Amino acid sequence: MSDWADWDHIVKIDPDKTLVDGETFEDVAATGTDAIEVGGTTGMTEEKMKRVVDACGKHDIPVYIEPSNPASVVHSDRHDGYLVPVVMNAGDVTWITGAHKEWIRIDDGIDWSRTFTEAYIVMNPEASVASYTQANCDLNADDVAAYAEAAEHLLGQEIVYVEYSGMLGDPDIVAAAADILDDATLFYGGGIHDYESARTMAQHADTIVVGDLVHDEGVDAVRETVKGAKDATATVR
Ligand SMILES: CC(C)=CCC/C(C)=C/CC/C(C)=C/CC/C(C)=C/COP(=O)(O)OP(=O)(O)O
Ligand SMILES: O=P(O)(O)OC[C@@H](O)CO
Ligand SMILES: [Mg+2]
């Protein structure tokens, strides 16, 4: 069974950002989140990634690296593996197969037993990741559902990731992706900042991802989103 099958909540640590003063990765692990993803778009250097992975690796919580480019794939046994994005609605093929081909061509240390993909559907045109991948964010619920179905059944993806990074998305869009998927796991990330936004999105997505909040508000705020995710999952069952 894949690690993420029973994750309700992920904290995404951007190695280019700091934690709130006085807070540690141990505090992040103690929020009750199910896993830590280390990933960002800009400023992803090997040194920054290693520092975060080493710090998180000490607390028995799954730690996955989400590389944003081939240069930020850090090889270490201090983490559980890699979640490599494939952007379904990228405007530049680099972010669908191009960067992946280059990474595979130059990196002879890939451990495929610990390397998995996330089929991203980028929805917030203001997000760095949207410009970074020239994503076509002008999608309605049918478009998103079709991308989700293509990811699972055409491209065999195990994870579909509806990404509103930086803003709280439209629950109906997330529901459209959730309703079409059979076995693939649906991640949702974007603008989750409190109990209510977490619970709302966790009613549709299998797993919610919280990023900016951990850097901007800190672990007490993150803990509220864990509660929201766990309560939603409890009621759905
Ligand atoms: C093939 C390899 C090893 C890497 C390429 C992997 C791909 C396709 C990356 C595309 C970009 C992407 C989906 C990156 C994942 C991390 C992410 C979404 C970071 C969030 O970025 P934003 O929140 O938009 O920007 P800020 O950093 O400003 O918050
Ligand atoms: O930073 P936020 O808006 O929480 O988004 C989390 C994650 O989806 C970013 O890739
Ligand atoms: Mg962000």
Overview of the molecule:
This protein is α/β, with parallel strands linked by helices and 237 residues long. It has one domain: TIM Barrel (Alpha-Beta Barrel), CATH 3.20.20. Helices cover 37% and strands 17% of the residues. It has nine helices and eight strands. It has helices spanning 25-29, 46-57, 98-106, 128-133, 141-154, 171-180, 195-202, 212-216, 219-236; strands at residues 9-13, 35-38, 63-65, 81-87, 115-122, 159-163, 185-189, 207-210. The model has no long low-confidence stretch (mean pLDDT 93). The structure holds geranylgeranyl diphosphate, SN-glycerol-1-phosphate and magnesium ion (MG).
Summed up:
By secondary structure, this protein is of the alpha/beta class.
CATH-assigned fold name: TIM Barrel
Uncertain residue segments: none
Order of strands, widest sheet = 1-2-3-4-5-6-7-8
Portion of residues in helices? Answer: 25-40%
User: What small molecules does this complex bind?
Assistant: geranylgeranyl diphosphate, SN-glycerol-1-phosphate, magnesium ion
CA radius of gyration is 16 Å
Please state the structural category.
alpha/beta
Helix run count: 9
For the record, what CATH class applies?
Answer: Alpha Beta
GO molecular function: heptaprenylglyceryl phosphate synthase activity; magnesium ion binding; phosphoglycerol geranylgeranyltransferase activity
Family: Belongs to the GGGP/HepGP synthase family. Group I subfamily.
Enzyme class: transferase
Protein name: Geranylgeranylglyceryl phosphate synthase
